[in-house]
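Try this one yourself first.
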């Protein structure tokens, strides 16, 4: 890295784990793919996008455990240099699944809570993003998730 470097800091980096499910077979079994892993978190995503535009970046923050190692490895494969501080705890994981039918509920984090993202994803409007969504959509109910 030479010249100016953009440093992004992600204090709560995530490892996105995705699975794909096939169609149900006649015996009632639905095959599941091997998991795919991708580093996530706002600063991590910003670093990856800036790198794709040719900027010199450095992704920094906190990452720990096996998830933290996979986050650093994924960023290295993407060509994004890292300077994460290793922590004792495990970095969070976000699980996502896809199937042949439309998704009817939002993705869930490893803690099981519904996640909100700040950008709409293909789902019914009642499961849309946070109230401050830049696209203007709002959850239909005021119930807390």
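Now uncover the answer:
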């Amino acid at each position: 890295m030479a010249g100016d470097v953009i440093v992004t800091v992600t204090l709560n980096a995530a490892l996105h784990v995705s699975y794909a499910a096939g169609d149900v077979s006649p015996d009632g079994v639905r095959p599941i793919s091997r998991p795919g892993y991708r580093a996530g978190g706002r600063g991590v995503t910003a670093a990856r996008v800036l790198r794709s535009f040719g900027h010199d970046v450095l992704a920094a923050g906190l990452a720990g455990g096996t998830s933290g190692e996979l986050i650093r490895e994924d960023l290295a494969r993407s060509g994004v240099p890292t300077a994460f501080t290793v922590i004792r705890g495990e970095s969070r994981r976000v699980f996502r699944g896809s199937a042949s039918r439309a998704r009817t509920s939002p993705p869930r984090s490893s803690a099981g809570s519904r996640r909100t993202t700040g950008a709409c994803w293909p789902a019914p409007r009642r499961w849309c993003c946070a109230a401050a969504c830049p696209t203007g959509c709002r959850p239909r109910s005021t119930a807390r998730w």
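Discussion: The radius of gyration is 18 Å. Residues 102-106, 109-145 have pLDDT under 50 and may be disordered.
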